[in-house]
């Protein structure tokens, strides 16, 4: 199982790097739309939509996603003010509603309500993948690397030192010690990345970058836990079986759905002030 997981992971990373740095903007947009639609198919199953409801959900999502991404209309996709309100809603969802949802143990029994949540999870993620890549492929890779490093550090720290459960009813394997390890390692990562890239100067800026990275860790953990809560509610272990050893698309992008829209929101706001 571990060998299969590693092989799949290496293949996915190789494909992602090739897409990030080689694909023209329109091809990247097509790829992202496909990724979102695969995730929507999985979310429709988690939501327990009927067969006709799942088909309608898929096509409506495709129309919305393709329209907002500018798919088929232009070869150059850039951030737009149209996306900003959606990113703002996404940030509010991840820092307020999702934590409250998990702490209260809400169980949504209406498939339509869960389907709407799926839009909040996946559409901002897809748009952020496009908008951030239009800014810089290295920026997308840097944010993704932060999430990967946080996840890996949390796993090994939790395995070695974990004693206090983070969310035992949602994901029993996650611990506060794992989160602490993730914060520590990610802090070292962003400081090293800022220093060697030459993009960050001054002690205050390094402190600010470190604090921002802590927010990123918190968001990535929230995204991971929320998808686990959705799967637990649906009574499944994995969101799908598309990726050998990894489960479905949602199982691979769960932490990205919360971090990437927040990064896109921050950059758009920063560009406006």
Strand and helix layout:
Blueprint: H1 2-22, H2 25-46, H3 51-69, H4 84-104, H5 111-135, H6 137-161, E1 165-167, E2 171-175, H7 176-197, H8 203-234, H9 249-253, H10 256-272
Antiparallel strand pairs: 1-2
Helix pairs in contact: 2-3, 2-5, 3-5, 4-5, 4-8, 4-10, 5-6, 5-10, 6-7, 6-8, 6-10, 7-8, 8-10
List the defining traits of the structure above.
273 residues; mainly alpha; two-stranded antiparallel ribbon; 10 helices
Give the percentage of residues in beta strands.
under 5%
- Report the radius of gyration as a whole number of Å: 18 Å
Return the domain count: 1
Task: Decide which structural class fits the backbone.
Answer: mainly alpha
Round the mean pLDDT to the nearest integer and report it. Answer: 88
Instruction: Tell me the total number of β-strands.
Output: 2
**End-to-end gap:** 49 Å
H/I helix tally: 10
Question: What is the strand arrangement across the widest sheet?
Answer: 1-2
List SSEs in N-to-C order: HHHHHHEEHHHH
- Name the helicity range: over 70%
Inertia-based shape: globular
Q: pLDDT under 50 segments (min length 5)? A: 72-77
The major beta sheet can be summarized as:
2 strands, antiparallel
């Amino acid at each position: 199982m571990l060998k299969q997981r590693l092989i799949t992971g290496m293949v996915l990373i190789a494909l992602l790097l090739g897409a990030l740095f080689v694909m023209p903007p329109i091809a990247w947009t097509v790829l992202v739309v496909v990724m979102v639609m695969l995730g929507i198919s999985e979310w429709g199953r988690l939501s327990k939509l009927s067969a006709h409801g799942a088909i309608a959900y898929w096509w409506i999502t495709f129309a919305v996603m393709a329209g907002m991404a500018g798919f088929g209309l232009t070869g150059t996709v850039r951030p737009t003010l149209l996306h900003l309100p959606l990113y703002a809603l996404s940030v509010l969802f991840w820092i307020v509603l999702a934590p409250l949802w998990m702490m209260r143990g809400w169980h949504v029994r209406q498939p339509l309500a869960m389907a709407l949540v799926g839009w909040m999870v996946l559409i901002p993620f897809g748009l952020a993948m496009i908008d951030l890549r239009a800014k810089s492929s290295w920026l997308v890779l840097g944010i993704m690397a932060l999430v990967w490093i946080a996840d890996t550090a949390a796993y090994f720290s939790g395995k070695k030192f974990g004693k206090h459960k983070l969310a035992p009813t949602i994901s029993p394997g996650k611990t506060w010690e794992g989160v602490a390890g993730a914060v520590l390692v990610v802090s070292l990562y962003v400081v090293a990345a800022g220093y060697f890239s030459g993009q960050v100067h001054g002690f205050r800026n390094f402190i600010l970058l470190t604090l921002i990275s802590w927010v990123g860790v918190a968001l990535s953990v929230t995204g991971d836990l929320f998808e686990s809560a959705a799967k637990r509610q649906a009574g499944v272990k994995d969101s799908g079986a598309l990726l050998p050893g990894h489960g479905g698309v949602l199982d691979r992008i769960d932490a990205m759905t919360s971090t990437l829209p927040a990064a896109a929101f921050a950059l758009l706001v920063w560009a406006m002030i």
